[in-house]
């Protein structure tokens, strides 16, 4: 892709948009950067752009900005269907996202991870498995390090491992991962997609350009995934269970059994080193710090992808024994007077809440709420009835959650995170669980799920200090 002297519009000026602008500046493109936010909200980003002599348009995405563009690069946080972008596309202007742009300049094989839940954990696991196998890999994408930063840095790793969101998949064109992982598809982002089918179709786009020599790692327990991937060209590996004559990984309690004796090496322009596969090879997850069946399934997927990319069984086993999990994902924060506090702020949809609740056998005091993404909270009724002693709701979605679930278990409304934590601790008995698993986005009170999780940690620490006085 030739970018020098091209007229490029960068839409959305968060971390990804700024990284794209830096890269385009390196390539000699002429740019306009646009965002609906104002300069105060964007902070130092605007100064950074202006220091590079990049024109900045704030407060709205004006059609006039797009009229003379040769290329439009849309950030994941901005819908690619907004009117100025759609109008430009109708005139033949190329519209891509950061992942597509970066992939045009990446020569290393790409391993891409998507799914509604578990993407970041699986991506981190996979990166560590490759590292412990002696394979140098860049780990980034939606996990926090934009792929375009890898391109800008001039790094030359053997592999690129990327977490990819549905928003990023919406704007791919030629993006072709050598190995793709699809963990699951459950309802999410229905405030952005017209329906669940459209959201699911977005996830399936990760296989759009794969060929017969590529590998797809698929959740075979999901009939929807099986149906939507029946005709893909890549070789399919399934988890956490196999049907007759299938290859993949079987989850047997605390063991993962691999059946890969017929796995064909990846045929790509850049050869990936492969380790020998053994039928019925076992991986032990009994001592893993990962919590819950969903995380064991993530481990299955990561293990399959690591082996397909040339990883070793020893390197994978070492990772499963050492991996401590990631912040804000069923993270144990503290135990106070035998009450156990868990931070699962990353659970931004109802399926995430279901997965979290299934990890506990003791009564749970559940903290939910935030900004609703079009979720159907009633699907939680059975799980709430089985696991939840008390529900504490907060934020913009407090009313809808209470209306959907308030008849199932005692429900209270809190006007802040500290108030929610204090209420839960007061009402909890010894050996019970206080769980923040919001089932909603964070953007009513917080800038991110991490900020929300940090506030939960802080509120728990305040309770701990008060009890120690």
Task: Return the average pLDDT rounded to an integer.
Answer: 94
Shape label = globular
Strand tally: 20
Main β-sheet, in a few words? 6 strands, parallel
How many helix segments? 18
Structural class of the secondary elements? alpha/beta
Low-confidence stretches: 267-278
Using only CA atoms, what is the Rg? Answer: 23 Å
Characterization of this structure:
The protein is α/β, with parallel strands linked by helices and 469 residues long. It is built from 18 helices and 20 strands. The strands form four sheets. A six-stranded parallel sheet has the order 7-8-6-9-10-11, covered by helices on one side. A six-stranded mixed sheet has the order 15-16-20-17-18-19, with helices on both faces. A five-stranded parallel sheet has the order 3-2-1-4-5, sandwiched between helices. Helix 15 links the parallel strand 17 and strand 18. The protein starts with 6 loop residues before the first strand and ends with a helix.
Provide key terms for this protein.
single chain, alpha/beta, 21% strand
Summarize the model shown.
The protein is α/β, with parallel strands linked by helices and 469 residues long.
């Amino acid at each position: 892709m030739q970018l020098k002297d091209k007229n490029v519009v960068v839409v959305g000026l968060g971390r990804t948009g700024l990284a794209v602008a830096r890269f385009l500046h390196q390539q000699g493109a002429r740019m306009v950067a646009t965002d609906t936010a104002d300069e105060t909200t964007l902070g130092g980003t605007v100064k950074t752009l202006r220091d590079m002599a990049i024109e900045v348009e704030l407060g709205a995405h004006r059609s006039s900005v797009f009229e003379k563009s040769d290329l439009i690069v849309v950030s994941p946080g901005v819908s690619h269907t907004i009117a100025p972008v759609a109008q430009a596309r109708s005139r033949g202007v190329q519209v891509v996202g950061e992942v597509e742009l970066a992939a045009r300049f990446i020569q290393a094989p790409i391993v891409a991870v998507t799914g509604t839940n578990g993407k970041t954990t699986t991506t981190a696991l996979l990166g560590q498995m490759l590292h412990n196998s002696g394979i140098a890999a860049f780990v980034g994408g939606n996990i926090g390090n934009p792929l375009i930063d890898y391109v800008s840095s001039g790094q030359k790793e053997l592999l690129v491992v990327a977490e990819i969101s549905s928003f990023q998949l919406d704007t791919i064109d030629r993006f072709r991962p050598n190995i793709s992982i699809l963990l699951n598809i459950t309802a999410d982002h229905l405030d952005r997609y017209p329906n669940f089918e459209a959201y699911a179709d977005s996830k399936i786009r990760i296989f759009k350009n794969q060929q017969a020599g590529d590998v797809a790692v698929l959740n075979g327990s999901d009939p929807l995934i099986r149906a939507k991937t029946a005709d893909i060209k890549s070789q399919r590996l399934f988890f956490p269970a196999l049907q007759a004559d299938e290859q993949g990984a079987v989850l047997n309690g605390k063991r993962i059994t691999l059946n890969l004796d017929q796995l064909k090496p990846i045929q790509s322009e850049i050869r990936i080193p492969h380790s020998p596969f053994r039928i019925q090879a076992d991986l032990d997850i009994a001592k893993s710090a990962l919590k819950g069946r969903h995380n064991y399934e993530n481990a299955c997927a990561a293990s399959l992808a690591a082996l397909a990319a040339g990883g070793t069984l020893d390197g994978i086993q070492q990772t499963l024994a050492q991996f401590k999990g990631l912040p804000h994902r069923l993270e144990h924060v503290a135990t106070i007077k035998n009450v156990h506090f868990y931070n699962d702020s990353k659970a931004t949809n109802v399926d995430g809440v279901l997965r979290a609740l299934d990890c506990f056998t003791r009564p749970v005091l559940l903290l939910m709420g935030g900004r609703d993404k079009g979720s159907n909270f009633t699907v939680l009724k059975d799980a709430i009835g089985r696991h939840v002693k008390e529900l504490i709701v907060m934020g913009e979605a407090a009313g809808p959650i209470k209306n959907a679930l308030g008849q199932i278990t005692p429900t209270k409304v809190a006007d802040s995170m500290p108030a929610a934590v204090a209420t839960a601790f007061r009402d909890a008995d010894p050996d019970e669980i206080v769980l923040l698993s919001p089932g909603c986005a964070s953007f009513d009170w917080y800038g991110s799920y991490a900020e929300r999780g940090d506030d939960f940690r802080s509120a728990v620490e305040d309770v701990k200090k008060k009890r120690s006085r």
